[in-house]
Amino acid sequence: MGLLQEFKKFALKGNVIDLAVAVIIGGAFGKIVSSLVNDVIMPPIGLAIGGVNFKDLMYVLKEAVVSPDGVETAAVAIKYGNFIQMVIDFVIIAFVIFMAIRTMNNLKKKEEAKPTPPPAPSKEEVLLTEIRDILKEK
User: What is the DSSP letter of 92?
Assistant: First the structure.
């Protein structure tokens, strides 16, 4: 089998395509959740704690410096506010995924719990039942 044919067989498998779709949807979902956290959830929290923007929270180890010849050296800082933001993003994404999986599992359990009617009797069973009933009558 040629390399191109082998690659085509691999790339067109259902699992690979499903995975690609999941990655694309996951990336879009991540952007939605990040917007929810950054634009909806964090502003009221920041306002409640005194108008603080979490992304601005940092501990500066070394201030920015401009040398005499005009070259600026960036500040060295530990940006713990951005870390807090990312932790909140993760918690919300994990919770939403947990709820979605939980809902799907509950739907599966409900379908499995539905009673299935017994199968119809075979022709032989029907015939034997008729014979039994005839013998009972005599």
Answer: H
